[in-house]
Amino acid sequence: MLQEVIKAPLHQENDSRYEYMVITAFPGESKHVARAALREHADNGKWELMRTCRYEGGAYKYWLRRRVMRVQSTLSPLP
Asked: Name one Pfam family in it (predicted).
């Protein structure tokens, strides 16, 4: 199984609200392993499943995304 974090898709060039992860499950691997990985990312990393695609050879790709939280400091600078 292959996991990679990618940039926003090309049609959403300036969209920095989300970050994306692609999980690829190859044909010889058990689906239970892929489901466990998806469940763990959803529970612990707050990822949500965006798209699933099955390819001709039997491989699956799962696209996950999560919202990026931008935090601004409310503290005044120290003198």
From this structure: DUF5703
pLDDT digits (tens, 9 = 90+) for 50-73: 999 999 999 999 999 988 877 788
Look up tokens 């992860």; give the residue.
Answer: 21
pLDDT band at 76 (very low <50, low <70, confident <90, very high): confident
Q: Cα separation of 49 and 65, whole Å?
A: 7
- For the purposes of burial, counting CB atoms within 10 Å of the CB of 61, is it exposed (0-12), middle (13-18) or buried (19 or more)? middle
Q: Where are the beta strands (DSSP E) in 1-79?
A: 2-6, 18-25, 48-54, 60-67
Q: Which two tokens stand for residue 24?
A: 């690829």
Which residues, 6 or more positions from 78, have their beta carbon under 8 angstroms from its beta carbon?
none
